[in-house]
Amino acid sequence: MPYDTTSAGDTPPVGQPILALNGIEKVFPGVKALDGVHLSLYPGQVTALVGENGAGKSTIVKILTGIYQPDGGEILLNGTAITFPTAQHAAAAGVTAIHQETVLFDELTVAENIFLGHAPRTRLGLLDWRAMRRAAQAILTSIGADIDPGVKLAELGIASKHLVAISRALSIDARVVVMDEPTAALSHKEIHELYELVEKLKAQGKAILFISHKFDEIFRIADRYTVFRDGQFVAEGRIDEVSESDLVQMMVGRSVDQVFPQRTPTLGEEILTVAGYAHPTEFEDINFTLRRGEILGFYGLVGAGRSEFMQSLIGITRPSKGAVKIEGHVRIIRSPAEAIREGIVYVPEDRGKQGAITALPIFQNVTLPSLAQTSRNGFLQLAEEFDLAREYTQRLDLRAASLDTPVGALSGGNQQKVVIAKWLATKPRVIILDEPTKGIDIGSKAAVHDFMAELAAEGLAIIMVSSELPEILGMSDRVIVMREGRIVAEVSGDEMTPQTLVRHAAGIGQEDAA
Amino acid sequence: ADEMRIALVVKALGIGFFEAAAKGAEEAASELGDVKIIYTGPTETTAEGQIEVINALIAQNVDAIAVSANDTDALVPTLKKAMQRGITVISWDSGVAPEGRSVHLNPSSNPLIGNMIIKLAADNMPDGGDVAVLSATTTSTNQNIWIDEMKKVMPDYPGINLVTTVYGDDLADKSYREATGLLQTYPDLKAIIAPTSVGIVAAAQAVADAGKIGQVNVTGLGLPSEMAGAVESGASESFAIWNPIDLGYSAAMIAYHLAKGDAEATAGAEIPMGRMGALTLDDNLEGAMADPFVYDKSNIEEFKSIF
Amino acid sequence: MIPLRLTREVLLAFALLVLLALVATRFPGFVAPSNLAAVFNDTSALIILALGQFIVILTRCIDLSVAANLALTGMVCALLNTVAPDLPIVVTLALALALGATLGAVNGFFVWKLDIPPIVVTLGTMVIFRGIIFLISDGQWVNAHEMSARFTAFPRYEMLGIPMLSWCAVLVIALVYLMVTRTSLGRSFFAVGGNPHAAVYTGIDVGRTQFLAFVISGTLAGLAGYLWVARYAVAYVDIAGGFELDVVAACVIGGAAISGGAGSVVGIVLGALFLGVIKNALPVVDISPFWQLAISGSAIIIAVALNARSGRAKGRIILRKAEHAHEPV
Amino acid sequence: MSLSDTARTQGATPATQRRDPRQIPDRLTTRGQRVLKSWEALLLLVGIAIFVANCFASPYFLSPWSLSDATFNFTEKAMIAFAMALLIISGEIDLSVAAIIALASTAMGAAATAGFGTPVLVGIGLGTGLLCGAFNGVLVTRLGLPSIVVTIGTMSLFRGLSYIVLGDGAYRGYPDGFAFFGQGYVFWVVSFEFVLFAVLAVIFTVLLHKTNFGRAVFSVGNNATAALFSGIRVPRVKMILFLLTGLMSGVAAICLTSRLGSTRPSIGLGMELEVVTMVVLGGVSILGGSGSIPGIVIAAFVLGLLTFGLGLLNVPGIVISIFTGALLIGVIALPRLIAKGRR
Ligand SMILES: Nc1ncnc2c1ncn2[C@@H]1O[C@H](COP(=O)(O)OP(=O)(O)OP(=O)(O)O)[C@@H](O)[C@H]1O
Ligand SMILES: Nc1ncnc2c1ncn2[C@@H]1O[C@H](COP(=O)(O)OP(=O)(O)OP(=O)(O)O)[C@@H](O)[C@H]1O
Ligand SMILES: [Mg+2]
Ligand SMILES: [Mg+2]
């Protein structure tokens, strides 16, 4: 098995990078995604690649793994030039990756997802299903994932899927392991297991490229760093020789205040009351209230059912019982259209599926939920649409060639900004943000946080679902913790400490609470 | 115009029967001298397809259109338009309602055909027994008329019992399947009567494949070239058809004389048809060309290479 | 896990049995083994084509040109037979397979290299293939007596009391089953249809895989072309006209997801048999021919609706206590 | 490794420029550029080429009556194609349109036989279309079945119902006034059908490209989930489109029945594929999400002119269909080939 522990030298080998990319260029229609960048990966070392959204990080990953072909530059493996015409070539050369988006097959079993393309064969050259299952089980166990390799992938939650993606990367006997924002979809416990895994791989002498927007993470596990900005190489070096603010400075070109916005919440009257909300399989007994000007955090491990509940609140799914009061009046919301009319909007967490319509231009995305506002008697008014789109995208500091650019051509973070702009433009009373800063860079994150503070000050009520502790603690006035479809705690003030939240979320020491 | 253009519009291109008719029309043309035959038709046997073809012919301002219709009524408006623009319109083989044409040429008289198909079956059933009909589509005009005529004369053939009528839609595989279904449903069946050239071939094949040659006789209307094998194998004792070459020839002749103005489409009138004699019109302005002709082992060799 | 995965197929098999029982009440002879064998034989062409179509549908494509491919290959075989009546059947078969594969490759080429949606490509080639038949045959039929005895005998030749046509279907079923479950090409069909984007990340060439699916579908259509023409002993422009819809219907009744990536060989065979039984049963149970079309249409709708119910994805369940209450039945 | 590595910086922009919000332009291209580069422009060129070729090929082509007759080759199909385009853009398809024509025509025939007048017949034609559309729509939006499969089923069902009603019979005897829809002329050679076609073209262009509903259709076709989250009532949009397609099939049924003056169950057989061909040639993505009505209008003319032109040369229909098939693949392949060549 490729992940078996083999001893490796303690001192990181200095000198020859195992994989070096020089002068790599990649042009997309209208965008020069990479402009002669340089990247070196050393055996037994973790190199963190940092940069703003759209800096070109994922693009270089795709070039490294044979999904994109570079338009210029060279790839050197152990000093010899090599090309990766397909993903299989890259895998054969020992380069494997956990990609930013989960690229797996819902209809296939977990085992097959792990081994597709390099599955064990019988002597007749036919696929050996039994061997495949056994090997898959071994890998899953080794990373501490309790997943049956025989079930269909569709039956797993997002976090489990991500663990399958990690297993897939490990199933290839790799010399270079690339991880593009691997912790974005994971919760606390799994993240720690991932760190251990990285250590293990390091010890095996593998070169690791680690991409993340979370600085605590980077400083915790990286040995080296490389910085890209707007598709250009900016800097590289040893991580212990830079400070966090240096790195941010290199990345953004200015210093960013990492502190969350200071605000003194002025809570207005109650705007939303949820009483006895329940669903047959997803959640039950949800009760809480929300006031104007308040930011209410929803914390929990990934898969706690927060998203499900929020989605039923805006009418995507029907609750089996329970009531919603808006400004004291009972309202029944049967569809997002009705929710938007009531002034409740939901910014979904799954940007690609639920948030953005990637083939349509930015301005059409932004105005879609507010067409009633920009149109006249059901007829479109393009000028007003552009005005609205411009106003909100610029407030969020969107980077795009034009408002007519398809959203799919933007980087992940910039897509997220379009999605947030889209729901803010409806001028809501209550806004529910589900993992609003997932995958967006530090600069934009600060912009989103500032903006949230601004909105709260204007009297908007905000619900923020987040699995990121610092964000929850830094932004919320009050936090509700969910576990397994129930509210297990509501904390505010001094009680809001990382320990309390994590303890409630994980259910430590309170097994019989419910 | 120096040359008269006569369009021979058929139900669909690629059907042996109509190809033979086209040959006959060409023969008439060379006999007449100053005539050009435009042989055309839709790809599938639909009225809409024929309308498109006829529209194109109207635009070309042909002198006459002789059509074998896929639908008695649906062509009427278009053909009326053609007549308004001075084009002579006749129908042949499969007719058009009277207001859509001047003259209709029946290949034979319907009662004769109706009688012929049941007689062919009865001749080989001295002890009587069950027969079934395999027709073309449920909407084919002439098949339905013949079957009706056949039913009218059934009492003349005591002991012959018609069990059912099925439809093969003029598709080889459907007809085959329907014929196989008949053989299963009616184990005592003595004959299948298929008054359609597609159906009769498929039925003969089905009988041969079911190993029922000698037990079940396939008869009806078919082309010698297509039926030669069935007659040789004994799946079909005999079948009938008029000569499509003669039919095409006659249609072209009639169209020519009407367009030229040397014959008139009135009840009782006689329209010359060259070597086929003359067509006598009845009150519906219809006339019959000739008797159907019977083919069996004695003459199939001679005709199978002709049409 | 095994019974769970088979629900769809079991349901379909059950529906098939009910259908047979219904027919038997009206006409007991229908369920006699000899007649069932005849029904299978009659459905063989549909099974062969449906399995080819299944592979294409797996890759998120559709092949509307199968029937036209069948007709063209059949016509070429028939014409070839008229000029070279003594050609060994193996050669005819090889030619049919090769020509079918070539026509499939034409479809696949446009899908792969020019990235034209499959439904558009095959809508085009469907009429083009038919047109070519017209051109090469000059619109004429090739009739039974013009074919050599050897040519028409092959599908009828009986082995162990079962005609060669049925054996061909059995062989195709076995081969496709093996390929789909036990080869990496077979699995890549599922991958490409299930998530083309992810397939690229797995190193699968999506276009090339789709190309191969079309080649396989074409090859099977070519095989069916020869068999069809030899069996009905006639070839003309319109043979198997509209049959592509039956083929697609068999696939969806059999549980192939039209959006790709899902379905099973057993399901497809059952789906084809379901249609085959309806087609063969309606004439013998003495239902007015005018009712046949409506009945088969309703059967398709009902089958698909049932299918969708049994195949509805089992969602994730968060609440602990609900987990057991919602075990699939 | 040393600290000096860190100094390897390049291409960094001065810090001060970064804070001010960037001005994002609305568009990078002008309207003219977009039109010139569009599918419609390419198709128009093809159309003009076919027109010119026709003028040279047949002396009969350039006559007003010929051209007027030629329009009947496409008007009815185009009416359905307009609605079908919206449906395909939204990610669904309706293969039962020709069968709806048969059923609607049968219903009108039955009513005509029962002695009802033209207005009632029109109502029945449209009503039957709507009903059929509703049936498809319910199966797709309520039961969540894939529309291609549902409509393959209803295609047999609807036509099958006509067969049950009509058998081997036919309805004739439509009232005199009814002939106007398919055979009447509004002005000189301009037929009623052509006028209807033109009016519908305008209505559908506005509906798809100028209204909120049209925008909803595009967003549903591109990403139905995101559209739902954005407050679009996706099932309702799809239901409306199925109803609209049924309605337009009803309109086409009125025109076609009136033009033929009779009804048989086989009426309009195979028309669904011609409609889909027209829609696809018009530049609608068969996968949903993009397309335009002007494209359909041009495609209707292109197909109509092509078949009529070749018909004037007495080219057999099946050979014409080779040209149609080649045109379909060729015109769609062309831009991709050009794009490949550029690279
Ligand atoms: N398929 C594509 N087509 C067009 N442009 C693209 C495509 N993929 C990426 N780009 C562009 O290339 C640039 C780099 O994108 P990339 O995804 O590599 O950014 P990133 O550094 O991974 O950002 P993030 O942190 O948001 O994931 C962006 O400007 C993006 O818009
Ligand atoms: N097996 C699944 N089938 C369908 N959708 C799923 C599945 N697993 C997860 N999802 C969807 O993916 C999204 C993310 O799921 P996740 O695992 O984060 O759980 P969640 O319910 O969102 O919990 P939380 O928001 O508390 O983390 C949700 O919108 C959820 O509906
Ligand atoms: Mg990225
Ligand atoms: Mg969530």
Automatic annotation (TrEMBL), chain A:
Keywords: ATP-binding, Cell membrane, Membrane, Nucleotide-binding, Repeat, Sugar transport, Translocase, Transport. Gene3D superfamilies: P-loop containing nucleotide triphosphate hydrolases (3.40.50.300). Its main location: membrane. This is Sugar ABC transporter ATP-binding protein. GO terms for cellular component: plasma membrane. Transmembrane segments: none annotated. It is a peripheral membrane protein. PROSITE patterns: ABC_TRANSPORTER_1, ABC_TRANSPORTER_2. It is found in: Cell membrane. It comes from Pseudooceanicola sediminis. InterPro entries: AAA+_ATPase, ABC_carbohydrate_import_ATPase, ABC_transporter-like_ATP-bd, ABC_transporter-like_CS, P-loop_NTPase. CDD domains: ABC_Carb_Monos_I (cd03216), ABC_Carb_Monos_II (cd03215). GO terms for molecular function: ATP binding; ATP hydrolysis activity. Residues 19-255, 267-509 form the ABC transporter domain. PANTHER family: CARBOHYDRATE TRANSPORT ATP-BINDING PROTEIN MG119-RELATED, D-ALLOSE IMPORT ATP-BINDING PROTEIN ALSA-RELATED.
Automatic annotation (TrEMBL), chain C:
Its main location: membrane. The keyword Cell cycle does not apply. Pfam families: BPD_transp_2. The chain crosses the membrane at residues 47-80, 87-110, 116-136, 157-180, 211-233, 245-278, 290-308. It is a multi-pass membrane protein. It comes from the Bacteria. GO terms for molecular function: transmembrane transporter activity. Coiled coil: none annotated. GO terms for cellular component: plasma membrane. The keyword Repressor does not apply. Keywords: Cell membrane, Membrane, Transmembrane, Transmembrane helix. It is found in: Cell membrane. This is ABC transporter permease. The lineage of its organism: Bacteria, Pseudomonadati, Pseudomonadota, Alphaproteobacteria, Rhodobacterales.
From TrEMBL, chain D:
It comes from the Bacteria. CDD domains: TM_PBP1_transp_AraH_like. The keyword Transport applies. Keywords: Cell inner membrane, Cell membrane, Membrane, Transmembrane, Transmembrane helix, Transport. The keyword Transport applies. Pfam families: BPD_transp_2. It is found in: Cell membrane. This is Autoinducer 2 import system permease protein LsrD. It is a multi-pass membrane protein. Residues 1-16 have a biased composition (Polar residues). The complex is composed of two ATP-binding proteins (LsrA), two transmembrane proteins (LsrC and LsrD) and a solute-binding protein (LsrB). Residues 1-26 are annotated as: Disordered. GO terms for cellular component: plasma membrane. The chain crosses the membrane at residues 41-62, 82-104, 116-139, 145-166, 178-207, 239-261, 318-339. One of its GO terms (molecular function) is transmembrane transporter activity. Residues 17-26 have a biased composition (Basic and acidic residues). Part of the ABC transporter complex LsrABCD involved in autoinducer 2 (AI-2) import. Probably responsible for the translocation of the substrate across the membrane.
